[in-house]
């Protein structure tokens, strides 16, 4: 998934959970006719990258359920049941199910890009339903969906000035562990909000390392002085 990042695991499973409505999980979409409910932990369906996502559903009868994520790009992936255990898809009437389960050792983190991400719930009494298309619905399958508004946070501007001049700047994203060379000081870099390690290097000088956290929309100016070895 692009907009939803699965943290710490690649396999999702569901266990019955208590009604989360008292903890920010109030139903965002309901069907008054058949009692099938689908909602998420943010009632206005708007998420920024980095936010945690929880998905909840409840059905009025024992049945098979499948939950899919449709990315901004149109690519889809099945969140539930896991590919190696189709029997997980059989759920009980009246219980609130939560994805991921509180017993799971991972979370869903919204990861971008910005746009509309769709969560689709498919219900069938015959077998685990397969996603066919955005519009395909059969007599055997009931469909519910939620459209999530994914927003990119406002970028950060980081300006680095060094003494001596023309020091090489390397920036490591703490979240991903990726480091890249960005240019020579003085230099202004546009970054996403988050935590970074900045390393300033120059031949015959000691490397300087700073760890910084940048807030959305922040304009930060950093002056560094390197000492000769």
Description:
- The protein has strands at 4-7, 15-17, 29-30, 37-40, 46-48, 52-53, 55-58, 63-70, 76-80, 90-91, 96-99, 107-110, 115-124, 142-151, 156-163, 168-173, 179-184, 187-191, 194-201, 208-214, 219-225.
- The protein has 229 residues and is an all-beta fold.
- Strands 5, 8, 9, 10, 13 and 14 form a 6-stranded mixed beta sheet that branches. Strands 2-11-7-4-3 form a 5-stranded antiparallel beta sheet, with no helix packed on it.
Task: Record keyword descriptors for this entry.
single chain; about 230 residues; mainly beta; Immunoglobulin-like; 2 domains; six-stranded mixed beta sheet; five-stranded antiparallel beta sheet; 21 strands; about 50% strand; elongated
Brief sketch in words of this structure:
The protein is mostly beta strands and 229 residues long.
What's the SSE blueprint?
Blueprint: E1 4-7, E2 15-17, E3 29-30, E4 37-40, E5 46-48, E6 52-53, E7 55-58, E8 63-70, E9 76-80, E10 90-91, E11 96-99, E12 107-110, E13 115-124, E14 142-151, E15 156-163, E16 168-173, E17 179-184, E18 187-191, E19 194-201, E20 208-214, E21 219-225
**Measured distance between first and last alpha carbons:** 47 Å
* Count of runs of 4 or more consecutive helical residues: 0
* Mean pLDDT value: 83
CATH architectural type of the largest domain: Sandwich
Quaternary organisation of the protein chains:
single chain
- CATH class of the largest domain equals Mainly Beta
User: CATH topology of the largest domain, what is it called?
Assistant: Immunoglobulin-like
Which percent range describes the beta-strand content? over 45%
Number of domains: 2
Task: Give the overall form.
Answer: elongated
Uncertain regions: pLDDT < 50 for 5+ in a row?
A: 5-33
Order of helices and strands: EEEEEEEEEEEEEEEEEEEEE
Q: How is the main sheet built?
A: 6 strands, mixed
Helix and strand composition category: mainly beta
Helicity range of the residues? under 10%
Measured on Cα atoms, how large is the radius of gyration? Answer: 23 Å
- How many strand segments? 21
